């Protein structure tokens, strides 16, 4: 039985017309979502870590100040995931694993607050940013100083795990919609990772079945808003200028739209939409 809870760790803002094709121009908020999962064997697992005030420290000087200007960020100390976990009586060293969907600052901002966790991410994603510094890092929305010094000593790469070999009825629609490998992180079918590259190289989503037998699909930034896949409204052409691979983004976006049309009971959760916070059940 897997339970999960969602947290907002600050937010950034963008022009709505860029995010949703056909939307008028206005400032739209994008919460930085973190999911806390609890596995009966593997304990507490975070999906991403969101923003912390460390973002302000790391973007004071050029060239990373460009990041802060392009993407205005708003986060308070009490909104960090560590602070919010403490309110749930969960300490940072109780988080055994952190699944990092990709290496953008709003997803990795609190990594340094977890000194004992094992990181799970794509090897392709890590290698794509590993040696990037300065303006090259900014262009990849990556801030090197947010990465712990011992990251490589504590990482488990998704591509090194096995792909599923059985067809689970709960995920058959996802298999049919995407037609790509699903990586079985624990070998028991409880957590399945899927490549959702496009927005960022090596971006991965996570699929699991919760305690109510609902299929949960954390899609990171493969879509930004729930309205996007419900109404089949991709971002405007301007948004593709900041994508790692526009073709891959469009392909995965179309597959998510198709998945929703095939089975509306699958809970598709983007990392930057307010709607799931009103719908999800927390821990009992």
Written account of the structure:
The chain is an alpha/beta fold. It has helices spanning 16-19, 54-58, 65-70, 81-87, 105-108, 123-129, 134-139, 172-178, 226-230, 246-262, 275-279, and strands at residues 3-15, 27-39, 43-47, 73-74, 95-99, 118-121, 155-157, 162-163, 183-184, 192-195, 204-209, 215-220, 267-270. The strands form two sheets. A seven-stranded mixed β-sheet has the order 4-1-2-3-5-6-7. Strands 8-9-10-11-12-13 form a six-stranded mixed β-sheet, with no helix packed on it. Helix 8 runs antiparallel to helix 10 (246-262).
Rg estimate, integer Å? 18 Å
Extended strand count: 13
- The share of residues in extended strands comes to 15-25%
Question: How do the SSEs run, as a string of H and E?
Answer: EHEEHHEHEHEHHEEHEEEEHHEH
DSSP summary: helix tally: 11
Mean pLDDT: 94
Largest sheet properties = 7 strands, mixed
Strand order of the largest sheet: 4-1-2-3-5-6-7
Summarize the topology.
Blueprint lengths: L2 E13 H4 L7 E13 L3 E5 L6 H5 L6 H6 L2 E2 L6 H7 L7 E5 L5 H4 L9 E4 L1 H7 L4 H6 L15 E3 L4 E2 L8 H7 L4 E2 L7 E4 L8 E6 L5 E6 L5 H5 L15 H17 L4 E4 L4 H5 L5
Parallel strand pairs: 3-5, 5-6, 6-7, 12-13
Antiparallel strand pairs: 1-2, 1-4, 2-3, 8-9, 9-10, 10-11, 11-12
Helix pairs in contact: 8-10
